[in-house]
Design brief:
Elements: E1 12-17, E2 22-26, H1 28-31, H2 37-40, H3 45-48, E3 50-51, H4 55-63, E4 68-75, E5 79-88, E6 93-104, H5 110-121, E7 125-130, E8 139-142, H6 146-150, H7 154-159, H8 170-185, E9 191-199, E10 205-216, E11 222-231, H9 233-283, H10 289-321, E12 328-332, H11 333-343, H12 345-350, E13 354-359, E14 364-368, H13 369-385, E15 392-401, E16 404-411, H14 418-421, H15 445-455, E17 460-465, E18 469-477, E19 482-486, H16 490-503, E20 508-512, H17 515-525, E21 529-533, E22 535-536, E23 539-540, H18 541-547, E24 558-563, H19 567-575, E25 580-583, H20 588-598
Parallel strand pairs: 13-15, 19-20, 19-21, 21-24, 24-25
Antiparallel strand pairs: 1-2, 1-6, 3-4, 4-5, 5-6, 7-8, 7-11, 9-10, 10-11, 12-14, 15-16, 16-18, 17-18, 22-23
Helix pairs in contact: 9-10, 10-15, 11-13, 13-15
């Protein structure tokens, strides 16, 4: 082993031979005469310094290619405690690196040593010494601790092009080299502290802090360098996370300020005209009736627009803060669209606008019905507002992928200019203009629409061309495929469940014997299929169907099992919405055929 050992900012650095006899001691503890280097030379390290490990124990660590770390004490007039590492240095010796943690007088303190040991076990550090940075072959020593950092052994690192420089992340390398060159060129006093990312053998990286100390000759020229490298990844990661959060909060704060400015302007603006017209009505008592009605109409429209704006704002705020909770359920797309269209039929008739609806099959979505009704009404209302008289609006719904349904609301109206399109979906650039017949709007509706769609994990986008029209697209998730069985015969219940699960593994099967629980579940989730036994606890299947909400607009296939083989009974069930009725002779083969039709 190379006998040249330099002081690297450690409190004590010991070179040991292969029998752990002390060859040389360096460091502040020697300089300050707390440890007498001459007295302890040639003595066994474990006789001079007390540790919780033996010579044989250390050899077991090295045989397993592991670095030993632990608590070490030295006693002269005072008792000094160190955190230390011992690692192999070539084939003929070892290096012990010690950092002082304090001194204790008066008595042994085994508890302190144990505490130091437990603290040090989680502390990663390694050391290196080299004669220069220019010559990679000038490396004197790299401690075994580097293996825990990088996965490379000291020998592997010395064979890499650039040695330890090879491990510096490429985005940090030039900065680190510049700081080292500045340190050398300017002959800066003291130590150089570096912070950078170190690459591991497995391709991952960690943040480290490196403290470099230089040794100079009598002329001030550098003769050697040494470094202590610490793993600061947990601290640095927390710092970066904190910086990101601080930056996010800064952006949010700026957005909040802009929002308040816009909000105060939008809330205050309409009241100028409202107060102006109200003042005229109060002061001009001789105005003609038609003129009074005109002014009252202005006041009414402006107030209505402001109320809509405030309602949108409140809903948007509640969604943002989580105070407005989604209540998603299985909703038939057809009912959702037709409900929205029917609520705006009057608006469309006034402009003689045709609204066509095209829905592919029986589609369902998992969504909050009230909020999605608000989305469709908002988009349809905009389409009517910006369409010309005698125009046409198309509403379509289709499968987007196996997890989503796509809705499209398309008009052939005035469209939007490119500079206006970038103002949509954000409160920071609210955009409002009058409709083709002077209809007013809040400019905030689409911001709320996007927030609702986002909360449903959907997406919304649009295409628009000035003078040609606009089409809005959005997606919603499809619900889980579900079959609900209400059957008090446990054996038959098990048979039906097994048939459905084995034949249709993508479907979830829920079985109930409690009819009231089943009614609530059916109303909340609207299954793909409902299977009912004719005779149920406390009620018949007919009463069960009649107990479902009459205004729910849910429509799903219903199978009745065990009904009397009577035409009158079949007619009654058909009237209540049952699609297939099986008598008490119930045949599995026929049941499978019906399942294939319904759950195809």
């Amino acid at each position: 082993m190379n006998p040249e050992i330099i002081e690297i900012g450690l409190d004590l650095l010991a070179t040991l031979d292969k029998d752990f006899l002390i060859r040389e001691l360096k460091g502040r503890m020697v300089t300050n005469h707390s440890v007498n280097a001459e007295i302890v030379k040639s003595k066994n390290f474990f006789e001079v310094f007390r540790t919780d490990i033996t010579t044989e124990g250390i050899k077991e660590y090295f045989a397993a290619e592991r670095l030993w770390k632990g608590a070490i004490s030295y006693e002269s007039d005072l008792k000094f405690y160190f955190l230390g590492t011992i690692s192999p240095a070539g084939d003929d010796g070892y290096i012990a690196s010690l950092i002082e943690t304090g001194e204790i007088t008066g008595c042994e303190n085994a508890g302190l040593v144990k505490n130091l040991l437990s603290n040090f076990e989680g502390h990663q550090v390694f050391f290196w010494c080299r004669k220069s940075f220019e010559d990679s072959g000038s490396t004197i020593m790299i401690s075994e601790g580097v293996r825990e950092f990088t996965g490379y052994s000291p020998k592997e690192i010395t064979s890499l092009a650039g040695n330890l420089f090879y491990l510096i992340h490429k985005d940090d390398l030039q900065r680190v080299i510049k700081e080292i060159n500045d340190y050398k060129t300017n002959k800066l006093p003291g130590t150089l502290r570096l912070c950078y990312r170190m690459m591991r053998k497995d391709g991952t990286c960690l943040w480290v802090e490196e403290i470099i100390k230089a040794k100079r000759d009598s002329s001030g020229a550098f003769t050697a360098f040494s470094g202590t490298v610490y793993n600061i990844d947990p601290i640095k990661s927390a710092e970066l996370l904190l910086n990101d959060e601080r930056e996010l909060l800064s952006v949010q704060n700026a957005s909040k300020d802009r929002f308040i400015n816009i909000l105060s302007h939008d809330l205050r603006g309409p009241y100028t005209s409202i107060l102006g017209f109200a003042e005229i009505l109060l002061n001009e008592t001789t105005l003609p009736v038609n003129e009074k009605n005109e002014y009252l109409s202005y006041i009414y429209d402006a107030s209505k627009s402001q109320l809509q704006f405030i309602n949108y704002l409140l809903d948007w705020s509640r969604l943002k803060t989580g105070k407005l909770k989604l209540e998603p359920q299985r909703i038939p797309v057809k009912a959702l669209i037709y409900n929205a269209v029917s609520s705006l039929t009057g608006n469309a008739i006034r402009k003689n606008i045709e609204i066509s609806v095209d829905i592919m099959g029986e589609l369902f979505v998992q969504a909050d019905e009230r909020l999605m009704n608000q989305v469709l009404i908002n988009l349809l209302n905009n389409a009517i507002k910006f369409s010309h008289e005698n125009g046409r609006i198309e509403v379509t719904a289709n499968i987007f992928n196996n997890k989503q349904v796509e809705f499209v609301v398309k008009d052939h109206g005035i469209g939007m200019a490119p500079e206006d399109q970038i103002k949509l979906f954000t409160f920071e650039k609210t955009f409002s203009r009058d409709g083709t017949k002077g209809e007013k709007g809040s400019g905030f509706g689409l911001t709320l629409v996007k927030e609702i769609i986002d909360k449903h994990n959907g997406e919304i986008w649009f295409y628009s061309e000035e003078h040609s029209g606009t089409e809005f697209h959005f997606t919603l998730p499809v619900p889980t495929n579900l079959v609900i069985i209400v059957q008090d015969d446990l054996i038959l219940n098990g048979q039906l469940t097994e048939i459905i699960k084995s034949g249709y593994p993508d479907f979830t099967v829920l079985s109930y014997t409690n009819t009231f629980e089943a009614i609530e579940e059916v109303e909340n989730r609207s299954p793909n299929l409902l299977v009912l036994n004719h005779e149920l606890p406390l009620m018949t299947a007919k009463k069960f169907l009649n107990s479902l909400k009459s205004d729910s607009n849910y429509k799903f296939p219903v199978i009745i099992i065990g009904a009397p083989d009577e035409a009158e009974v079949n007619e009654l069930y058909a009237h209540d919405g049952a699609d297939y009725i099986f008598d008490k002779k119930f045949e599995i083969k026929e049941f499978n055929r019906v399942l294939k039709i319904i759950l195809k």
